[in-house]
Every structure is written in C-alpha cells, then in structure tokens.
C-alpha cells in the first residue's frame, strides 16, 4: 500500500511539473511583452517615411526608429505631430533661443553661417532645373523657448517651419536614431 502511495505521489509530481513549467514560461512571456510594450510606448517607435521632403537623406517607405527620450540638437532629424493624424519628418536647424536666417542660399544660426553638406545633391538638382538657389531667403527669426525651427532636406519640396512656423517641443514624437530599411542603409542615423 505504501508503495502505491509513493508511486501515486511520484506520478502526481510528474503531472504537476509540466504545468509549473508552463506557468513559468507564461510569466516570462508576459513580462517580456510588458517590457517591449513599455519600451515602445515610452522609449522608441518604428516609423515609415512618407513623402519626399527629406530626399535624398530619406526616401519614400524607408523605415526608421525614433528615440522618444532624447535631447534635441542642431541637425537632428525629428518626427513631430502637426495634426492628430499627420506627422512630419524634418531636420532641426534652430533650437530655443537661436536666431535663424536664410540669405543667398546660406543658413545662418546666431549670425554664423552653417554648413549643410546633406544638401549638396539637392543643390545640383536645383541648378539643373534652373533654380538660382535651393532655399528662398527668409528674414532672421528668433526661436522662442519651448519651440524648434525645422527644414526639410528637399528644400524645393518641403512643408516645414517656413510654412508651419515654429514646432512646439510637446509635439515632437522623437528623434531619428536608426534606419531599418532599405537594408543597404541599415544602421545608426547621424
């Protein structure tokens, strides 16, 4: 009789063990899901590029990763909300307190001419199309506290701060940090 009780207990242990293992795996999966969802909500977000305003830096349907927790600086590329269902991708040229001016196709920040090497290809295209300059002049503007001034890399085809005005810091979704596709451009974005 005692042998039967021991055998039954061993059999019960064998039955409980898989369900305990299953519960442990379920806990791991739930925890991992919570970590990923939290990271997606508060730290990073994948985005697909729509539009041509950042060409050739980004093309239509490129996939990028945004960091939601980031200090925004000059030349950073950001995604920001303009309307509930409308996001834009642009390059930051003015941070709070900056004086931004475009004169004779040269960008000046706080009175200092700023090099924009990412525009070289677009400058050549503009010249071939008969444009004397890539970016129309605009008078000096001071970026207020809590706002940013942004421009698209494809200056001839970009709705940016020249049209939208200053971008509220609270409307910034995140800074572009990584490109997922196309695969030949996979890697960190600078």
TrEMBL record:
User: What GO annotations for molecular function exist for this entry?
Assistant: serine-type endopeptidase activity; signal peptidase activity
What is the top-level taxon of the source organism?
Bacteria
Instruction: Show the SUPFAM superfamilies listed in the entry.
Output: LexA/Signal peptidase
- Where's the Peptidase S26 domain? 23-180
Q: Does the keyword Metal-binding apply?
A: no
Class of the enzyme per the UniProt entry, highest EC level: hydrolase
* Record's subcellular location: Cell membrane; Membrane
**Assigned keywords, A-Z:** Cell membrane, Hydrolase, Membrane, Protease, Transmembrane, Transmembrane helix
Q: Topology in the membrane?
A: Single-pass type II membrane protein
UniProt-listed Enzyme Commission number(s): 3.4.21.89
Q: Which reactions is this enzyme annotated as catalysing?
A: Cleavage of hydrophobic, N-terminal signal or leader sequences from secreted and periplasmic proteins
Principal subcellular localization: membrane
Q: Where is the active site?
A: 53, 90
Any GO BP annotation:
signal peptide processing
Q: Name one GO cellular component term.
A: plasma membrane
Q: What NCBIfam families has UniProt attached to this entry?
A: sigpep_I_bact
Family note:
Belongs to the peptidase S26 family.
Write down what this protein is called.
Signal peptidase I
The protein's organism comes out as Planococcus halotolerans
**Gene this protein is translated from:** lepB
């Amino acid at each position: 009789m005692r042998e039967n009780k021991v055998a039954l207990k061993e059999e019960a242990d064998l039955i409980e063990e898989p369900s305990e293992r299953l519960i442990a795996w379920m806990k791991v999966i739930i925890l991992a899901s919570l970590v990923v969802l939290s990271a997606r909500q508060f730290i990073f977000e994948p985005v697909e590029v729509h539009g041509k305003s950042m060409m050739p830096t980004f093309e239509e349907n490129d996939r990028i990763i945004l960091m939601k927790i980031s200090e925004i600086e000059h030349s950073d590329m950001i995604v920001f909300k303009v309307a509930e269902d409308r996001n834009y991708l642009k390059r930051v040229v003015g941070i709070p307190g900056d004086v931004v001016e475009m004169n004779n196709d040269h960008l000046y920040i706080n009175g200092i001419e700023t090099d924009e090497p990412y525009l070289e290809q677009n400058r050549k295209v503009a010249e071939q199309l008969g444009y004397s300059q890539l970016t129309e002049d605009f008078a000096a503007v001071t970026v207020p506290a809590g706002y940013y001034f942004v421009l698209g890399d494809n200056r001839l085809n970009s709705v940016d701060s020249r049209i939208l005005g200053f971008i509220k810091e609270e409307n910034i979704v995140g800074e572009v940090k990584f490109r997922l596709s196309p695969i030949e451009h996979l890697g960190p974005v600078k």
